[in-house]
Specification:
Number of domains: 2
Shape: flat
Radius of gyration: 19 Å
Helix content: 25-40%
Number of helices: 2
Structural class: alpha+beta
Largest sheet: 8 strands, antiparallel
Number of strands: 8
């Protein structure tokens, strides 16, 4: 194998690994692209758990995993979205959790499989300056034992 063949093999392997790592986010963005045509439902916010994203030794952003539930044709479904702040937003994330639990949010769901749902309003005044997301990598929250669940 000459030097060009080795570089080509390395480039192909690198591209495949990069695409594999990006796949969950690409799938999420494709859902967002078609999700605006999905049916709308009102979901009740059941709980919000405060945590910090895993970020090694650096100051990690505070987040809240917000669980919601909704019904379609008498069947109950659940979903999750994340409110993301910065490493200095502990108080604001905690306050948003307290204010949101028990409230209603608009969601969109896939009509053929309502287990797949998306938040219908990523920019809601009730979220303040916190960023709402459903990217798969943000759903990996490292709970802070001293804070625990804000509300159940």
């Amino acid at each position: 194998m000459n030097e060009i063949d080795g570089s080509l093999v390395f480039a192909i392997v690198f591209m495949l690994v990069a695409l594999w790592g990006l796949f969950p986010s690409l799938r999420h963005f494709s859902r967002l692209a078609v999700g605006h045509r999905w049916p709308v439902a009102q979901a009740r916010i059941d709980s919000a758990t405060l945590g910090q994203l895993r970020n090694g030794q650096y100051l990690a952003p505070y987040v809240a995993a917000v669980r919601y539930s909704f019904s379609v044709n008498g069947q109950d479904y659940r979903g999750t979205f994340v409110l993301r702040g910065t490493s200095r937003d502990e108080v604001e994330v905690k306050a948003a959790c307290s204010a949101l639990v028990g409230g209603i949010v608009t969601i969109r769901y896939k009509s053929k499989d309502p287990n797949i749902s998306l938040l219908g309003e990523y920019f809601n005044p009730r979220f303040g300056r916190l960023r709402a997301t459903q990217d798969p990598w943000t759903l990996k929250i490292a709970p802070i034992p001293s804070l625990g669940d804000v509300l159940k």
